[in-house]
Fold:
Amino acid sequence: MTNERTSFASIQRYARIAGVLFILTLIFGYFGEAYAPGKFIVVGDAAATARNIIGSPMLYRLGFASYLIEALCDIALAWIFYVLLRAVNRDIALLSAFFGLVSTAVYAVAELFYFTALIILRNATALAAFSPDQLNALAALSLKISANCGWIFLAFYGVPSVLRGYLIYRSGYFPKFLGVLLLFAGVGFITKDFLVVLAPTYASDVLLLPMFLAVLSLMLWFLFKGVDAEEWERQRHAVQMVNA
Structure:
């Protein structure tokens, strides 16, 4: 009985931590991916964008630092989802964790190009072979590559969401609607990814809305409801018996 109580407490603790991580992801993700870039990037005007970056380098760095915090949260969430969902199907839970880690790594490359724009503009002396207009254009190009990398590889976020949605739906210790929401959110990300590549005109941001709703719902559920620990324990024992 003591071991079971410890196990129940442990799994609930993972759920609560996941809820806190989702809060941090929403806050720092918004700041680093929407608010901060919106303060600097002037579409079609490389010179104005460069002036904005040079004028507020600390805010620009804070935008990048916010992504670093979001990435750390994503890595931790990949592990926690594996722990929470391996009782349903360990192989699929592990696969979702792999995809989750790859998605974070790929997006890190996109963010590296975001930071590169500041490096270019702050090192005009070392890049004296380039005129100021050329440096501005290089910085703008770096930002454009960053944005496109983020959109092009959305499928790497979408696939683990589909897998986790499926496992949550099958789990019995989470409500099925959470699984359905996350599954459709992942499909929206994957669809947006391929439309950006194949038919950019139709790549509407509406496809991203289900992910916001799914993350918000998961965050609230993990924080205030957590896991049906007895059902989680029953499924964990069932999987152990099958693998024995």
